[in-house]
Design goal:
WH-like_DNA-bd_sf (chains A, B), homodimer, 10% strand, DNA-binding, 7 helices, three-stranded antiparallel beta sheet, 170 residues, MarR family transcriptional regulator (chains A, B), mainly alpha, HTH_MarR-typ (chains A, B), transcription regulation (chains A, B), disordered C terminus
Chain lengths: 170, 170
DNA sequence: TCTAAATTGACAGTATACTTACGATCTAGG
DNA sequence: CCTAGATCGTAAGTATACTGTCAATTTAGA
């Protein structure tokens, strides 16, 4: 078979490209989240970190990065900001001097409780323009795609097995 | 009606949240793009900027930001990097001393031609785990959602009317 | 015409997101 | 026991992505 002729270079090709749509949607999602949650001064990433620390008290930074699927280096500054806001605290692990364990403070637990409704409003708003059936279809396909592409990302999600050394698993 | 009881705070709720899935998918998409295009030393954003400048020679930075839907401030450094790599050039506009017009250099036009196959491979890989019907469904719904949410983002896309003052419209 | 408002590009500041590298520490193998 | 390799947190460097603000310039209205 002959090669396909080169397509003309157009913006329409960019607008229809998966990568472009993913980037736009992420921009929009962050924008909506920040708008709904601006009273709490928490970013989406900081929120995810708080939930993970709430769910796994005493987790360390490396495992936290696996549980919320983002880079360890990035996480360092996220943790510092949460420490500065007094939403989490960090304690040395008695049995391993390299590790620092993370816990929610009272203030962190409180803001987590209070922010939930705003987060839920934000999540709902992101999908609001679609009808309920389409929302379900989109989320289902996207969840599949993210899962099947997990290894393609630089920081794959390791929800369960990342915690094996914390006394919760195998 | 009574309020819904507060749902427990779990990571599963985070993993299923639209905002989380959009962020993960964006991370994965960038990772795949960079992998396929690493020989060209171009980021997804720099690629989009090159295509836009190719399509609209003599565009200025403000209109460019509207055409690819990203922030003017961010764009400043993107333009500087493209200038440093000698992929674009910047000329003052004769009729308006504030404006600097952007053009591809020969080297910029060349790399744009050469990178296209790698970009197409990257876009295909992002959707590869889904079957063709599901790919189409996902892209259709996502394109709809991005379009309908356009105004929710801080930098709405203004593909056409952003160019009215360039002698292409109105 | 002359000033007030808008526009343009630049800058500083914050927050992801990634890379590579490094010292401290732990663990396994010999 | 003692070193090789792995792991932990940290740091420096690059690149988006956004918030403001600012000066220079243009435009519109009184």
């Amino acid at each position: 078979m002959p090669n396909k002729p080169a397509a003309p270079i157009t913006m329409d090709a960019v607008y229809a490209a998966p990568g472009y749509l993913f980037r736009r949607m992420q921009q929009i999602a962050v924008s909506i989240f920040m708008e709904e949650c601006k009273a709490f001064d928490l970013t989406p990433v900081q929120y995810a970190a708080l939930v993970a620390i709430h769910t796994h008290p005493g987790i360390d930074a490396t495992r936290l990065s696996a549980v919320i699927a983002f880079d360890r280096s990035t996480l360092g500054s996220v943790i510092e900001r949460l420490l500065a806001k007094d939403f989490i605290e960090r304690k040395p692990a008695p049995e391993d001097k390299r590790i620092k364990l993370l816990y929610l403070t009272k203030s962190g637990a409180a803001i987590l409780r209070e922010i939930i409704p705003a987060v839920e409003r934000a999540q709902a708003r992101m999908l609001e323009p679609l009808n309920p059936a389409d929302r379900k279809t989109l989320m289902g396909l996207l969840a599949q795609l993210v899962d099947l592409n997990n290894e393609a990302s630089r920081v794959p999600l390791r929800a369960e097995d990342a915690l094996e050394h914390l006394g919760k698993g195998g």
